[in-house]
Amino acid sequence: MTVRVLGLNCSPRDNSNSGILLEESFRRLHEKYPGEAETEIVALRDLHIEPCKACNVCGKTKDGKFIPCVRADEDDVQMVLDKMVAADGMCVATPVYFGLPTDLFARFIMRTRPLRHQDFKLANRVLGVMATAGRRSGGAETAIISTWLPFIRNGCLLVGNGDGTCQFGAYGWAGARGHIRSDEWGMEQGFQVAERVFTVAKVVQAGVRAADFKNPMVFSYSAGTRP
Ligand SMILES: Cc1cc2nc3c(=O)[nH]c(=O)nc-3n(C[C@H](O)[C@H](O)[C@H](O)COP(=O)(O)O)c2cc1C
């Protein structure tokens, strides 16, 4: 069984450092584990993404069925949500903007709320983050941690990189488009994140199959009893 890893490129610009980091990391993943991984990269900048309307409809049911997001037919978001649900693991690559992931990421991630409201469809997907900053101390760690938070709310499992020191993710150090290529350590960390996501997703995949839970989140979730 192959492990499916989805890359989300959250840069608003073309030929971005974030895109290069994802592409090169996935290239090396295929090189090291031939035939074992399926990867795809979605560039959010290429998509039409409307903001969440905060209508709260996605948390409701009608005739025993969840009501879909009211914006599901208005833009490209549903297509990405389907890819996230189909994935075993995800790598999010974002530029650091004021110590945070991009506004493009924020706009997109709020639209994952139906997945959370509707039986935690992203439960146990493995997530790693690659953050690229123009400055060495420009906020890569805060951006990584901020990126994690909505995924925790979605029931995902967070990993750092897979080298001996297990850092919080990949820290790219680059300003202009393409400069990430000369950041040897950032590129190495990007691969380590992709590899860590891949290996942990493989373990989770095997464990979930063995445990045979229909949805490992649902048994602990009881609507109406939450504070
Ligand atoms: C609005 C904006 C805010 C930024 N904020 C930061 C920052 O807080 N720290 C930093 O080191 N670099 C900052 N940068 C620089 C980018 O993180 C850097 O250019 C990065 O390489 C962009 O990645 P990309 O090529 O994937 O878009 C900022 C750039 C922009 C446009």
Question: If you had to describe this structure to a student in words, what would you say it looks like?
Answer:
By secondary structure, the protein is an alpha/beta fold. The chain has a single domain, classed as 3-Layer(aba) Sandwich (Rossmann fold). Helices cover 36% and strands 17% of the residues. It has six helices and eight strands; from the N terminus they run βαβββαβααβαββα. Strands 1, 2, 5, 6, 7 and 8 form a six-stranded parallel sheet that branches. A two-stranded antiparallel sheet has the order 3-4. α1 links the parallel β1 and β2. It is globular and about 55 Å long. The termini are far apart. The C terminus is likely disordered. Flavin mononucleotide binds next to α1 and β6. The site of flavin mononucleotide has 19 residues, from α1 and β6.
CATH class placement: Alpha Beta
Q: How many helical stretches?
A: 6
Fraction of residues in helix: 25-40%
For the largest beta-sheet, the strand count, sense and barrel status come to: 6 strands, parallel
Hetero groups bound? Answer: flavin mononucleotide
H/E series, N to C?
EHEEEHEHHEHEEH
CATH architecture: 3-Layer(aba) Sandwich
The chain-level mean pLDDT equals 93
